[in-house]
Amino acid sequence: MTVENLDLIAGWAGLVLTLMVFSYLLADNFLYRIAVHVLIGTAAAYVAIAAVEDVLMPWLRATVFSNDADTSSGVRALGVLPIFLGALLLLKSSSRLARLGNLGTVFMIGIGTGVALVGAVIGTILPLARDASNSFDHESALNGAILLGGTLCTLVYFQYLSRRRSDGEPVNRPHIRTLRFVGQGFVTLTLGALYASAILTSLSIFSSVIHEQLRFILNQLGG
Amino acid sequence: MQADRKTRKRRRLRLGNAVNATLVLALGFITMVGLLSPADSMTGLTADVFLQLVGVLAAVAVLVGVLNLLLVHLGRLPRVRKGGFYSLVVILSAVAVAVVHVLDRSKSWGGDLEGQKVGPRLFGVIQVTLESALAGMVFFFLVYATYRLMRHRVTWANLVFLAAVLIVLIGWLPLKGLDGAQDVRDWLMEVPVSAGARGLLIGIGLGTVTVGVRVLLGRERAYREP
C-alpha cells in the first residue's frame, strides 16, 4: 500500500464518519451510534497510550529503571509508590477491599485540594479582586462604576442573604433584593454573550468540516 | 453476637476515616506550604515531588478507567439486543488503535509505508473528524434551544439573554453599515459581560476555597466510608 492510497482511504473514512455523525440531525439512528462508539473506543485507546508513553514510561525510566549509578534505593521505591497506589484503585470494585483503594484517592484528593486552594486564591480571587478594585483606572467613570457594581451585584446574587419570616417564608430586604435583581441581569447578559460565542464557535467548526469534506469530494470528482 | 460484629465494623470504619482525613489534611497542608515557598526550599521540593507523584497516579487511574471501560463492554458483548453490537465496536476500535500503535513502534510497516507513522494519520481521520463533526452539530442544537427558550415562556431574563445573544451575533457580522452594532457589541463584551464574568469567576474561586477547606477538614465524603 502506498502513502497516497492510505490518504485516500483516510479521506473516504473521514467523509463516511462525518455523514454518520450528521445523520443524527434526521433522527437518533444506528449509524450515529456506531460513530460515537468508534470515538469512545479510539479515544480510550489514545488516552491509555498517552498515559503510558508520556507519563508512566518516563517516570519509571527516571526512577525504578534508572541506569544512573547515583540513583538511591529510596528514589526507586518512590518510583513504585504511585504505581502501587494506582493498582490499589482496582480494589475499589470489591466491596470488602474497597477501603484499601481509598488510599490512592486520598493522595489525589489531598494534594489536589492543596493545589486547588493555592490556585484559587493566587490565580483567581486575588488578581480578579485587584482588577475589580482598579476598575476606574482604565475606563471612564461610568464604565468603571458598571464594572465594579456589576461584579459586586453578581457576587451578591449568589449569596444566601434571606431571612425567615415567622411563617417560615424566606424574604430578602428591599436593598438586597435590588442588588440581586441587578446581579441577575449581569449574570444573564454574561451567559447570553457566552452562549452567542458558543454559537459562533460551533458555526465556524461546522463550516470548516463542510469545507474540508466538500474539498475532498471535489478533488475526487476532478481527478 | 451480630450486634457485636456490627459495632466492631463501625469502629474499624471510623478509624479508617480518621486515618484518611489525617492523610488528606497533611498532604494538602504540605502541598499548600510547598507551593507558596521558594522552589529550591525543602517544602518547595517536597511539593514538587508530590505533584509528580499525583501526575503518575492520575495516569495509572486513567489506565484503570480504560481497563474498566473495556471490561464493562466485554461484559455486554453477549447481550446483542442491549447494545452488545456497539460494545463490540468500542472494543474493536480500541484494539485497532493499539495494534496500529504497536506496529508503528516496532516499525513493522513494509513497502511504501516503511518508516511511516500510521497512528497520527488514524488519529487525524477518526478523532479529529468525529470530534469536529460533533462540535459542528452543536450549532444546530444551540440555535434550536434559543428558539425553544422563547416559545416556552417569555420573562425579562429571557429577553435580556436573547438581546445579548443577538447583539453579539449581529456585531460579529462583517457587513458595512453595522459599525454601530459592532461598537455596542464591543462595549457589551468589555464592560457588563466583563463585570459579570469577573463576579462569576470570583464566586467560583470562593466556592473552590470553601470546598477545599471542607475537604481538608474531613467534612466531605469523597474518600470516606459511609
Secondary structure: elements and pairs:
The complex is a heterodimer of chains A (223) and B (226).
Chain A: H1 3-22, H2 30-62, H3 73-88, H4 98-133, H5 135-138, H6 141-157, E1 163-164, E2 170-171, H7 174-222
Antiparallel strand pairs in A: 1-2
Helix pairs in contact in A: 1-2, 3-4, 6-7
Chain B: H1 2-36, H2 42-76, H3 84-105, H4 118-152, H5 156-172, H6 179-190, H7 192-216
Strand runs of chain A, count: 2
Number of strands of chain B: 0
Mean of residue pLDDT of chain B?
86
N-to-C terminal Cα separation of chain B, in Å?
A: 22 Å
Overall shape of chain A: extended
Chain pair forming the biggest interface: A-B, 114 and 118 residues
Helix content range of chain A: over 70%
- Which structural class fits the helix and strand makeup of chain A? mainly alpha
- Biggest sheet of chain A, in brief? 2 strands, antiparallel
User: Mean pLDDT of chain A, as a whole number?
Assistant: 88
The oligomeric state is heterodimer
Question: Can you describe this structure?
Answer:
The complex is a heterodimer of chains A (223) and B (226). Helices cover 78% and strands 2% of the residues of chain A. Chain A has 223 residues and is mainly alpha-helical. Among the domains of chain A are: 1-62, no CATH class; 138-223, no CATH class. Chain A has a two-stranded antiparallel sheet. The longest helix of chain A has 49 residues, at 174-222. Chain A starts with a helix and ends with a helix. Chain B has 226 residues and is an all-alpha fold. Chain B is built from seven helices and no strands. At the A-B interface, helix 1, helix 2, helix 3, helix 4 and helix 6 of A face helix 1, helix 2, helix 3, helix 4 and helix 5 of B.
Describe this protein with a few key phrases.
heterodimer; A: 223 residues; mainly alpha; two-stranded antiparallel sheet; 2 strands; B: 226 residues; extended
Quick structural summary:
Chain A has 223 residues and is an all-alpha fold.
